Structures are given as C-alpha cells and as structure tokens.
C-alpha cells in the first residue's frame, strides 16, 4: 500500500524513505486509517533491528510516513547473489528475530515477513520493515480484512488456509524459518509454479530436507516450519534464543 520515494532534506543534507498515499483517487478512508496504524506500529518499536519512523503527517486526503533510509539493499538481493552458510544465515536472522520479538512483546504480529522486507543499513545491520499487514496489540487486523494476505512463499499454513483467527506470533516464526531455509538451500522451501500451487504445498507438503548443514541448524528450521502453530517456537524471542545458542556452539 502506498508508494515509497527516496527524499533528501535540503537543509540537513539527510536522506530518508518517504512512503505516501495521496488523495481520494489513490486511497479510501479505511486505507488511510490502516496507513496511520502502520505508522503507529513501527513508531512503538524502538529497536535497533526495526526501521525507525522519523515523522508522520496527514494533510487533507494525503498521508506521509517518513522513515530512515536504509542503503544496504534487501535480504532478497543477497539471496539472489549467493547461498549463505548456516552460521551466516543464523547471524542475520537472529537479529531479524530479535526485532520481530520486540513487536511480539507489544502484541504486534507482522504477518508479511519476507526477504524483501528485511533491509540493511550502511553498516550491514538488518532491519525489519513494512508493517502494512500487521495485526495490532488488541488483535485488530490493521488491514481491515479477513482475506488471505501476505506473500505465499513465506505464509504459514494457517495464513494460507485463510484461518486468520489462528494467526499469531508462530506465523512470523514460520516466515523466519522459511528465510533460514532459503538462505542455505538457495531455493525456497515450497517452490510452486503459481501462488495457488505454493499455498497448497505450504498446507500439505513437508519441505525437502536440508543437506550439508549442522544438525542443530536443521532442527531449528524444522521446528519453525512445523505445520501446526503449537509445534513451532511460541514467538520470535524463543527462536532468537536458539539461534544464539547455535552460534555459540551451545546445545539447543
């Protein structure tokens, strides 16, 4: 939702990412409310691995969200360049999981975690972006719809089935698990020929076993990708703890 521009503050000579929805031709009142809720969700998360909100403005029918500019590209770009080692994948996605855990601690579920929404700053640190499909702390759906929403390759089985009332922190855990898998395998865990095919695979088929990775890493990924939410990590914080243990050579 909205269009993102790269902008420069002329007095401060500082770049920022500006997300905008402009006028009634481009968005209805409900869309502007969702946009405001997205801004509030991000602004409530003061965490080094969540994109920072710098300003939010509403003027008439126009809404503008100003965020820090992250020039380091996306995780999606890195996946297309080369496979990562298990340790490299764990290092990046541990930080992502910590950022997502901050959201979970406030009752916010992202619901659209994917490599394109993981952006890197100039120092190479990953940050979680785009909370436009998030579920809020009261359980309110910030999208205002019960439709299946998200990115099929990273959607949990409960999302793929449209069981929105069951979508909670374990859905974000699933998405992080899918990214861990893709990072080391060089392919997505459920590579269907269409969105419909992917959604069917997500609900009914186990991903091919990972090869040539440490056993504990594979165990973490398999737990993330369990079909039943109750068999996954309860939240991203518990997942991050196990990734940290793995990186330190401790038992999980």
Describe this structure in words.
By secondary structure, the chain is of the alpha+beta class. The chain folds into two domains: 3-68, Phosphorylase Kinase, domain 1 (2-Layer Sandwich), CATH 3.30.200; 75-247, Transferase(Phosphotransferase) domain 1 (Transferase(Phosphotransferase), domain 1), CATH 1.10.510.10. The protein is 39% helix and 14% strand. The strands form two sheets. A four-stranded antiparallel beta sheet has the order 1-2-4-3. A hairpin with a 4-residue loop joins strand 1 and strand 2 (14-21). Helix 4 runs antiparallel to helix 9 (236-247). The longest helix has 20 residues, at 86-105. It is globular. The relative contact order is 0.13.
- In percent terms, what proportion of residues is strand? 5-15%
Give helix % range.
25-40%
Q: Write down the domain tally.
A: 2
Report Rg: 18 Å
CATH superfamily of the largest domain: Transferase(Phosphotransferase) domain 1
**What integer is the average pLDDT?**
89
Model regions low in confidence, pLDDT < 50 over at least 5 residues: 138-146
Distance between the termini: 39 Å
CATH topology of the largest domain: Transferase(Phosphotransferase), domain 1
Anisotropy-based shape = globular
């Amino acid at each position: 939702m909205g269009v993102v521009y790269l902008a420069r503050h002329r007095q401060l000579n500082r770049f920022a990412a500006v997300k905008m929805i402009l006028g009634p031709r481009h968005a209805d009142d409900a869309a502007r409310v969702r946009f405001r809720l997205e801004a509030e969700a991000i602004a409530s998360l003061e965490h080094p691995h969540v994109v920072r909100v710098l300003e939010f403005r509403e003027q008439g029918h126009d809404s503008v969200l100003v965020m820090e500019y992250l020039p380091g590209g996306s995780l999606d770009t890195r996946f297309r360049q080369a496979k990562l080692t298990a340790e490299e994948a764990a290092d990046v996605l541990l930080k992502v999981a910590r950022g997502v855990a901050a959201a979970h601690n406030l009752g916010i579920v992202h619901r659209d975690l994917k490599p394109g929404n993981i952006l890197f700053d100039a120092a190479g640190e990953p940050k979680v972006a785009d909370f436009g499909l998030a579920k809020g702390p009261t359980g309110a759906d910030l999208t205002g719809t019960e439709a299946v929403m998200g990115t099929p390759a990273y959607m949990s089985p409960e999302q793929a089935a449209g069981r929105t009332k069951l979508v909670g922190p374990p859905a974000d855990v699933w998405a992080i698990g899918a990214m861990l898998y893709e990072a080391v395998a060089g392919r997505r865990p459920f590579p269907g020929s269409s969105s419909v095919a992917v959604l069917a695979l997500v609900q009914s088929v186990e991903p091919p076993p990972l090869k040539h990775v440490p056993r504990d890493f594979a165990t973490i990924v398999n737990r993330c990708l369990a079909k039943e939410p109750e068999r996954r990590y309860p939240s991203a914080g518990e997942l991050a703890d196990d990734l940290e243990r793995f990186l330190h050579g401790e038992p999980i």
